[in-house]
Amino acid sequence: MTVANNSIRLMQETDLDCILLIEQDCYSHPWSFRQFSQELENPVASVLVYEIEGQIAGFICYWLIAGEMQILNLATSPQQRRIGIAAQLLDEAFKRCSRSELSSAWLEVRSGNLAAIALYQRYGFKLNGTRSTYYPDGEDALVMVKLFTE
Q1: What is the number of H-type helices and E-type strands within the chain?
Q2: Residue ranges per structural domain of the chain
């Protein structure tokens, strides 16, 4: 996908340092270099990056297994928030997965991340459950699901 000087593409190994910087800016318990490297090797994983004029501004990591999408990580650089990057990454991920007869998408989100929850709700995700004290700091995770077969 390309819009003006913006594009979405699959992550490459050379993107890892930039991805890690965004990850560290966004999360109190960020993924490691090794975790992202493993996703590059994982046959069910995809990591898409969003570029603005050649600079990575966000990414989404998801798995697709038997028509079920698991969104594992979605982040936007703090300097590039509120311009629709996360939404465009979700759109592109859904588009790529729909070719594989996508039936549902699942994710976990911090209960206090109201901006992310609002984004997911706009995309039709619904609360499916809560994982108490799921995150290392004790915050709950909300399990959300979007069904594509309704």
Answers
A1: 4, 8
A2: 2-147
The model's pTM is 0.92
Which of helix, strand or coil describes residue 23?
A: helix
- Which long-range contacts link 26-29 to residues 24+ away (Cβ below 8 Å)? 26/75, 26/76, 26/77, 26/78, 27/75, 28/137, 29/135, 29/136, 29/137
Name the β-bridge partners of 143.
108, 129
Identify the CATH class of 2-147. Answer: alpha beta
Beta bridge partners of 63: 45, 70
Angle at 128 between CA 127 and CA 130, to 5 degrees: 90
pLDDT digits (tens, 9 = 90+) for 38-59: 999 999 999 999 999 999 999 9
